[in-house]
Write a structure and sequence with these properties.
The protein is an alpha+beta fold and 104 residues long. Helix content is 36%, strand content 40%. The chain has two helices and four strands; from the N terminus they run E-E-H-H-E-E. The protein has a four-stranded mixed β-sheet with strand order 1-3-4-2. Strand 3 and strand 4 form a beta hairpin. The chain is elongated. 20% of the residues are buried.
């Protein structure tokens, strides 16, 4: 499965558009991570705990996106957009959307 943020794929022809597909992942960050992240924010630096959570959520959302594209009979997804949101006090949401296509 080819997944790209571009609207076309060099060297491939889009033979059929299957429709819009979306994958979402909402993950909670535990209280200990929140406390350490706040300390990191105060003293400066990067929060490895949150970066890891964001990476997990992104991978989950993209995997779900691919699964939904396959279910439509697609072999690629073009025009992929990733959105990040904070839900509530400690929930991280990643949404991936794009157009499922058949390439030849």
């Amino acid at each position: 499965m080819i997944v790209t943020t571009t609207g076309s794929l060099e060297g491939y022809q889009i033979a059929e558009y299957k429709g819009i597909v979306v994958g979402e992942a909402i993950m909670g960050a535990n209280v200990v991570r929140d406390v350490f992240a706040q300390i990191t924010d105060i003293v400066g630096g990067r929060s490895g705990a949150y970066e890891s959570k964001l990476q997990d959520a992104r991978e989950t959302a993209l995997s779900e996106l691919e699964d939904r594209a396959r279910a439509l009979g697609a072999n690629a997804v073009v025009g992929v957009d990733l959105d990040y949101e904070v839900v509530g006090q400690s929930m991280l949401m990643v949404s991936a959307s794009g157009t499922a296509v058949v390439i030849g």
